[in-house]
Write a structure and sequence with these properties.
Length: 383
């Protein structure tokens, strides 16, 4: 059957009162493509006397997707991946913060990495979600204003790929939940994370399922349904961002945390410099200026000042020299002013150990014992 015969057949079926959806099912079963059916239907409607706007060449009855349409659609899928990943990472970080696992202390997953992932996810959502929202509005508007427009094959394939990935994710997530329950290993933390994955994948599948029915199969789905769907997702994203600020801290709080960690690192390194000086020269430096005067310890100068105020850290000799066991030791004190308290292990990275990383807010001093003479040969040094 040639194209004109298809048009004639379509015209006859329309006159017989056959609905468009039923007609397309008949033709699809015979092997006609979506574009061919749309073109024939448009030609038949015109033959019935439907007015055609004078906006260009009508030789091809269905307007092909423009390059702009393809770019917008492809861009929206990239944004979808960014948003889905960011939203999942954000809620995972929030769950990790409020439902800590004892195993995290021995894991690579640290507090600063959790905070960084939360902040990065918030940034991705603040930029990506509005762009995706407006890209999809533009996408639907093009098909609403021009029902004869057809989409590219690339758009169809990408959409069905998204549907497939979302469906597989939902099924896999449900299997994981049931398996964990059967094993007796389900926890609040695990359940919440599984729920996050299920909600994100389910929302994506539901949205694009409706989008296919609306755009490709021309099912009459009310515009308000998509609008309400968009508003609901917007509320979830806004809620996630708000919780993220509570869990990860505001920019000002995070700046204070970073400065405190830098101070702690400075003090730890500076204490190491003083200990090396005492061990090498057999005496504690009278002041930090003694370290500056020695070329061997000139690198220690970078650890001597507060990163925010530029003021020198406080140093004083507590005990110049004393016998501890069989070793000669000295005691010195270093002080710094911290912005925030860091006494909870969940606020510190697993590698942040030692006396400097757990501290109160305000002025904090720590006394350090340094060996200033080698132990007597054959004896045992008591630490």
């Amino acid at each position: 059957m040639d194209t004109q015969s298809l048009v004639d057949y379509t015209l006859g079926r329309i006159r017989a009162g056959v609905a468009k959806a039923e007609l397309k099912e008949e033709l699809s079963a015979l092997g006609w493509t979506e574009d061919e059916m749309e073109a024939a239907y448009r030609e038949a409607v015109i033959a019935l006397g439907a007015p055609v706007p004078n906006t260009g060449n009508r030789a091809t009855l269905s307007r092909k997707a423009s390059t702009v349409d393809v770019v917008i659609n492809f861009f929206s899928f990239i944004l979808l991946g960014i948003i889905a990943t960011a939203l999942g990472t954000l809620f995972f970080g929030i769950i990790n913060r409020y439902f800590p696992d004892a195993l995290d202390a021995a894991n690579w997953y640290s507090a600063s990495q959790t905070t960084s992932s939360i902040h990065y996810s918030i940034a991705a959502l603040l930029i990506g979600f509005p762009l995706y929202y407006f890209a999809m509005r533009l996408w639907f508007r093009k098909f609403r204003e021009d029902e004869g427009r057809t989409e590219s094959k690339l758009s169809k394939w990408l959409t069905y790929l998204v549907l497939l990935v979302a469906a597989v994710t939902v099924v896999g997530d449900l299997i994981a939940i049931v398996f964990a329950m059967l094993q007796g290993e389900i926890t609040t933390r695990f359940f919440l994370k599984a729920l996050v994955i299920l909600a994100i994948a389910g929302a994506i599948f539901g949205f694009y399922y409706l989008e296919r029915r609306k755009i490709q199969y021309h099912v009459d789905i009310s515009r308000s349904l998509f609008q309400n769907f968009g508003r609901s997702v917007s509320v979830v994203v806004a809620l996630g961002i708000l919780l993220g600020f509570f869990a990860g801290g505001s920019p000002a709080t995070q700046r204070s945390v970073t400065l405190d960690q830098t101070r702690a690192g400075h003090l730890s390194s500076l204490a190491g410099c003083i200990e090396q000086y005492a061990l090498s020269l057999g005496m504690l430096p009278a002041s930090l200026g003694d370290l500056k005067q020695s070329s061997q310890y000139s690198y220690c100068v970078s650890y001597m000042k507060d990163p925010e105020t530029g003021s020198a850290y406080e140093y004083r000799v507590v005990t110049p020299q004393k016998l501890q066991g069989t070793a000669q030791v000295g005691e010195f004190e270093l002080c710094a002013t911290f912005a925030l308290a860091a006494t909870d292990s969940t606020e510190m990275d697993t590698w942040q150990t030692g006396i400097w990383y757990a501290h109160d807010a305000g002025r904090v001093c720590q006394t350090v014992t340094a060996q200033i003479a080698a132990p007597v040969p054959g004896s045992v040094m008591i630490k």
